[in-house]
Design brief:
The chain contains five helices and six strands; from the N terminus they run H-H-H-E-E-E-H-E-E-H-E. Strands 1, 2, 3, 4, 5 and 6 form a six-stranded antiparallel β-sheet that branches. It folds into two domains: 41 residues; 141 residues, Alpha-Beta Plaits (2-Layer Sandwich), CATH 3.30.70. The longest helix has 60 residues. Strand 2 and strand 3 form a beta hairpin. The radius of gyration is 40 Å and the shape is rod-shaped.
Length: 225
């Protein structure tokens, strides 16, 4: 009898364990495994998002620097020829350097690669050797990008100086009390897409007329420097 009761107890215990395994432990372990799997998938998705967030924070931290660089580029190559602004700057540095700004000429914008327009500029100033060197240095430091293609120097005599060469210095040059510097350079503009498209459309018909006309030019009144 005791043996029978013991067998029944063992059987009941086995059934309880089986039910516990089937009804509780196995589903719980399955849920845990699913949760782990879902967590791994979400972690894989999270990694690129974290990288994007880090990049966005880095970009935001450098936003002011990027803005300053963009402004510098816009000043170097504006979206229009901005000739009036350039003439003011060229005259301003002539006064600062002490040279006499004799004349300036510029050609019409010529379309180039990537929608960049090239404008040929001719400048002529007079002054002592030191004044001319100062002017060229200031010209190179303009915010507007200017590529100097040629620089020609020639001596001349300033009538106002009464032929007294001792009052002026032409450095390694001789034969006069003044230097005349003739500069040929190029500056650039980057018009927007609409302006570039309009320029391209009208360029074919306008080209023959432009080729037969002289470049636009202006002559400045000597500043007395």
């Amino acid at each position: 009898m005791k043996t029978k009761n013991l067998a029944v107890s063992i059987l009941v215990a086995v059934l309880v364990v089986a039910l516990w395994w089937t009804m509780l432990l196995k589903p719980a372990r399955s849920k845990v495994a699913k949760v782990k799997s879902d967590t791994g998938i979400q972690q894989q998705k999270l990694a690129p998002l974290q990288r994007q967030l880090s990049q966005a924070r880095a970009d935001a931290a450098h936003a002011a620097e990027f803005k300053a660089q963009l402004q510098s580029l816009q000043l170097a190559m504006p979206d229009s020829p901005a000739l009036a602004a350039f003439l003011r700057d060229a005259n301003g540095i002539a006064d600062a350097a002490g040279v006499t700004w004799a004349s300036v000429s510029h050609s019409a914008p010529v379309p180039g690669n990537g929608g960049v327009q090239s404008i040929t500029v001719g400048l002529q100033v007079q002054g002592t050797y030191g004044q001319v060197v100062e002017y060229v240095s200031r010209l190179a430091s303009l915010k507007r990008l200017l590529v100097v293609d040629s620089l020609q120097l020639a001596t001349s005599t300033n009538a106002a100086a009464g032929g007294d060469t001792g009052q002026s210095s032409t450095g390694p040059f001789s034969g006069g009390n003044q230097l005349t510097a003739t500069i040929s350079a190029r500056m650039f503009a980057t018009p927007d897409a609409a302006a570039a498209a309009a320029s391209t459309t009208s360029g074919t018909s306008a080209a023959p007329a432009a080729s037969s006309s002289a470049p636009a030019s202006s002559t400045a009144t000597p500043s007395g420097g």
